[in-house]
Design a protein that fits this description.
This protein is an alpha/beta fold. Helix content is 25%, strand content 34%. Pfam families: Imm32.
Length: 128
């Protein structure tokens, strides 16, 4: 659980950023993959909550400091895979001129993300 506190949330002009070292991003992914209907975990500058429901992935900001994910497990997997993928890219990258990141946002016609989602960028810090 302590590793999760190394993830951090920032909100800037309606865009959300979830960042942290690769080990913390992987820990968060593993935590969210657990077979429970609802999760809420503290991270730096806020918290991450998740609710398994039906429908596409919905990324939202609840209050001013809670990053919330909801949707079917097959759609929440978009976030889990992004956390793992960005962490892996940071661990294996030779070029370190830019931090590895992935955008999760809705585009017209997207069946996997809700049109009500807010843009999210997941960013991996370089490993020590």
């Amino acid at each position: 659980m302590d590793e999760l506190r190394h993830c951090r949330l920032s909100v800037d002009n309606g865009e959300l950023q979830l960042a942290g070292p690769p080990s913390a991003l992987r820990a968060l992914s593993q935590y969210l993959r657990r077979p429970a209907e609802t999760w809420n975990v503290a991270i730096t500058n806020g918290s991450v909550s998740q609710e398994v429901s039906s429908g596409p992935l919905l990324v939202s900001l609840r209050g001013v400091t809670t990053l919330h994910f909801s949707g079917g497990r097959q759609f929440l997997d978009i976030v889990w895979d992004a956390l793992d993928g960005v962490a892996e890219q940071a661990m294996t990258a030779d070029d370190r001129s830019i931090n590895r990141h992935q955008h999760i946002e809705y585009f017209p016609g997207d069946e996997y993300r809700s049109p009500d989602s807010v843009p999210l960028v997941i960013v991996a810090d370089w490993p020590e």
